[in-house]
Design goal:
With about 375 residues, this protein is mostly helical. It contains 13 helices and no strands. It is elongated, with a radius of gyration of 23 Å. The relative contact order is 0.14. The protein binds iron/sulfur cluster (SF4) (2 copies). One iron/sulfur cluster binds near residues 33, 39, 74, 79 and 80. One iron/sulfur cluster (SF4) binds near residues 74 and 88.
Amino acid sequence: MLATELPATEKAGARPGSHATALLTEADRLMTVCNSCRYCEGLCAVFPAMELRRAFPDGDLNYLANLCHGCGACYVDCQFSPPHEFDVNVPRVMAQLRGDSYAAYAWPRGLAPLFARNGLSISLITALAVAVFIFGFVGWHDPSVLFGTHTGPGAFYKLMPHNTMALLFGLAFLYAIVAMTLGVRAFWRDIGDPVAVDRGSIWRAMRDATTLRYLDGGGIGCYNHDERPNDRRAFYHHLTFYGFLLCFASTSVATVYHYAFGRIAPFPWWDLPVVLGTVGGIGLIFGPLGLMIAKLRRDPVMLDEQRLGMDFAFLMMLFLTSLTGLLLLVLRATSAMPLLLALHLGVVFALFITMPYGKFVHGLYRFAALVRYAQEHRALTHK
Ligand code: SF4
Ligand code: SF4
């Protein structure tokens, strides 16, 4: 039997019984092999963090998995990758472990199964949310409201009162923040001793996260199925991330306009919420599209294929949020506005409530892992 066909606990270096799952046992085996080899130590943060350890408890393995950006360089460079009998595939095992860790730290625990068939769950929740908004508009008025033309300040609130909209989305957002905070807190407690976080480590982690420092495969980019590395994933990730921030800023400014200055949406095209939303929205169209194409071009051997549904569902949610928002902007003076508003609100509401149970959490866990890494690095260099 080939080593690639052996269960994780029977491969060289595996320590059965000391981990909660077979995947954690496999990750321990890989880190033990890598710790003897150390060929990849210049590629990213995972290997230097690994070298600080002689044993790999579950929490540490989850930390290393979330530190990994999945660039694929260590798979391509590895002399022990399949078909070698050591069967070393760090990107794939780390990707699988990351997925497991999102569910393991989810709050409340009862909703962790949403990660299992994530694509289907998010699709159903989104469809349901859109339907509820459509029927809500009709229920508040009558079916003809869906095909009428509503213009001028307050046009959106003829379909749904502003206070109801603000309360609904405020509660959904608050729930997402609480659930994700509790998830990250559990992760943080599990990945090391609870030491106070210093400003320098947070600053370094922010710099590493916002520049995607460890997505560059040690300087040459991410690997695809043709083994030609490029920086497209980083570029599209930047478009997505900064597009999301600009859209969030647009909504925040619009809220301040409403409550502080009594200015009512929709706003003219040159106004700050519209400018921020349009620029951010364009980023959120091309960023997720580019990331979906990049994902299809990657070598499947390095991916967690079981969770591609989760990745695509999240990217599709961002894409749809932007597409419906931009269409709403362009067609707001036409009879298409009511249906587009229901679509947009439904997608955004579903995005909010599913945030703690989808790919969105990868950014939070990765940031926490980068803070931990920065702390370890500072402690080492201050000695
Ligand atoms: S991935 Fe392979 S080459 Fe890199 S450190 Fe591990 S065993 Fe060595
Ligand atoms: S896939 Fe990239 S980021 Fe992940 S461990 Fe390998 S080199 Fe590091």
